[in-house]
Specification:
212 residues; three-stranded mixed β-sheet; 53% helix
């Protein structure tokens, strides 16, 4: 009797091109984790052409936004706590590919106070990857520091965001008020207003955490 294919460990591999690197990963993993790939694989294969992803010569070419290092971190071994760049790569791809469960796991491993980056870079990451609970924290940290927003900060954040941060700083115009304002949430109302954040229960919860 001819052997049969195991339901669990007989896997179809898919070839992906990320930048100038080729990766071969189990199709089942892509389908299980990612609605984007589920939709892609749901289309019937063409009758007169080789299926994309079936070989090194016909890989599925991922968009330029996806970097090989990000993909390697995402599908590599389980990342340890404290691997900030690794979890940021996971956050980036999980958001891009609508993988909410994995995105939540990445956010749980990216605590604002623990990530070893400066406030400007943290705020830029928050805005780029929609890390909502970092926005107030990042803007407040920049508003409280003695130094004003610099040219270098503006290059990272963009002019519009830099001007908004400067406006938050000026919401308490006295330097002594800015540095010694009672309560860690002194800037939160101005941040919500200037950055047009929804003043809902989510932001109220963040403010409560900030003063605990």
């Amino acid at each position: 009797m001819a052997p049969f294919k195991d339901d669990e460990f007989y896997m179809t591999l898919v070839t992906l091109q990320v930048e100038d690197h080729l990766f071969r990963v189990p199709r089942r993993i892509l389908e299980a984790q990612c609605p984007v790939f589920q939709d892609m694989f749901s289309f019937p294969p063409p009758l007169d052409a080789e299926v994309e992803g079936s070989s090194d010569e016909h890989p599925i070419v991922l968009p330029e936004l996806v970097k090989a290092e990000d993909f390697r971190r995402y599908y590599g071994p389980r990342l340890p706590k404290g691997d900030d760049d690794g979890w940021i790569s996971v956050l980036k791809l999980s958001r891009m590919w609508q993988m909410e469960e994995i995105r939540r796991a990445a956010l749980n491993n990216l605590k604002y106070s623990a990530v070893q980056k400066g406030a400007v870079e943290k705020l830029a990451l928050a805005l780029k990857h929609d890390i909502k609970d970092w926005i107030i924290l990042g803007v407040e940290e920049l508003a409280r520091r003695p130094e004003p927003i610099s040219v270098e900060d503006t290059e990272v954040l963009g002019l519009e965001v830099a001007l908004k941060v400067a406006a938050v700083r000026e919401s308490l115009v006295s330097e002594s008020l800015r540095l010694t304002a009672s309560g860690r949430n002194a800037f939160a109302p101005a941040i919500i207003r200037i950055f047009s954040l929804s003043d809902d229960m989510g932001w109220c919860w963040i403010i409560v955490v900030m003063v605990m």
